[in-house]
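Feature request, filed as a ticket because there's no other form

It would be nice if the structure record came with a short human-readable summary line next to the tokens. Right now we just get the raw output. Example of a typical job, pasted below so the devs can see what we mean:
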Amino acid sequence: MMKRQTMIIVLLAWFLSCFNTADAQADNNYIILDGTYTFASGDDPAWTSLLFDDSKWRSIIVPGSWQSQGIKPAKGLGWYRIRFVAPPRLESNNVAVLLGRIGDADEVFLNGLKIGKGGIIGSRYVEATKIERLYIIPPHLMRYGQSNLLVVRVMNTYLNGGFFDNNILLGDYNSLMIEKLNRERGSIIIEFCFFSCFVIFFIACMFFYFRGLKEKEYIYFWIFITFYSSLFILGSITFYNTGAKSPLIQQIINTLSTILPAGLILLLMSVYQEKLHLLTKIMIAGFLIVAVANNVFYDYTVRKYLYAAWKGLFIATALFLIIFAVKAYLRKAHESGPILLGITGLVLGFILESIGGVDLLQFTGFFLWDYSAGFFMFCIMYSLAARFNRIKNQLVSASVKILDAHEDERKRLSRELHDGIGQSLLSMKLKFKMLADTFGKNKPVDRESFNELIEGISNTIEEVRSISSDLRPSFLENLSLTDALNWHARKAMDKSGIEFSIKSEDKIEISTRLKDNIYRVYQEALSNIIRHSEASRVDITLRMRGKSLVLEIRDNGKGFDPLLSEKHGAGLGLYTMRERIELLGGLFRIKSSDKIGTTMYIEVPSE
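Raw output as currently delivered:
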């Protein structure tokens, strides 16, 4: 026994002195092939040959990525070669080699013949980055007790290339299969955790939809989940093991990855209820152009530049969204805190991975992008759930307020009718009775009495018109919106003494329904200014912005806290104004402070 072990050691030492050799540590069922390999970048089928001289190739440590060892292979292709001795004790086994995970596709040759591949190498490549490579070796290929040549051709498409896992093993297939399953078990468990989260998010979106919440933000979140879950599932170990991952599927993965930030823009803009302006449209168009180009051009250099363009676009998008989210948080927009947290996590994950080169896949089996995207979706889901709960509570509160408002309106009308019209009619009744008594006594009637009655009737008619106009201004059907706003501003100025200035475009053509709603909001806004603002001046701007109508009302009053007002249940007028505008598919914003007064910004589609 001792002689046999001595012979093996001598043989190994001899081969180590002649070839680049792995650290072949013996075990009952396998040997370990970690160590120093020869390596060359580029691509040449002749490198598989046993006769090829690789003495001028550089050395590379396995396992280890190319990037960590300062290697930048031409067109993302590199070849590994190593010579090893297979111990005779393995001859009775069904022999295989377990290479672990390789970034990103590979072909493996033993003694000049191909024994397997992971993914597909070429312009129509298929990635297999997360897959543990296990290849069966045909019995006639292995030379037991002699030198064997293992050659691995590798293509790197994203982040790091090379071998990721310790312990490259050569040995019994059954033992190595158990080792492969043990290595993949943790990744598969995490995959199913992600799958479960996707299902929960889908169910939540369906719940919101069937409960009547069909706003854009919920639809865009559903679209974003659909895109990302499809991307995750198609790139998963589970899907790869079905054998269905083809170049077409890889192209779909690449396309979804490219346009995913565009979906992110649409989602965040809808959550913040913002219109897409020129910059966001340019960024979305940029992602779509890169996606189309990726499906047209397969050259490695062209794709390298396209990826650089995509990274530039994403950095610009990330900066824009973070600035946007910070502004929303500073103005205390609803649910802005968790949204800002989610965006920050998402952007940080991307920057660390794509720019900083942090590759968690080598250690956890998943990209940092996967974790940051999952964190982002949890934050958005929390925000949408919080919004649903807030809207539900607001609806309950609004129902109570509306009932109270109806009662208050009845009391107001009763008071105006009693104190105004009622008193006027009573006064006229007494005067008519006095005239009747005078006629009955055949006394002359003072002509002034008739003038007083006519004046009283005229005043009463004017009061009726005023009340009727407040309830439903019929002149809106005949006047333009600009004229109606000017008329009400003059009326408010006479009543309050506040100076009103209106700037409006000459031709604004909108529907009667939109005109009625904008006038109501304007009427309520001016009423609030008169009652609460203590302002001396109000500037009003009415203009068209593309196909949208914009109304801006700015005062120099004492200001207030809109969120605090809504939180404490005050201000039905503020709530109804917001509700009117949102039902029209528009934007309603209020900015207020004790230093600059209050600015109300309204933007609604004109069609």
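Something like this underneath would help us a lot:
The domain at 2-180 is CATH 2.60.120.260 (Jelly Rolls).
Residues 1-26 have pLDDT under 50 and may be disordered.
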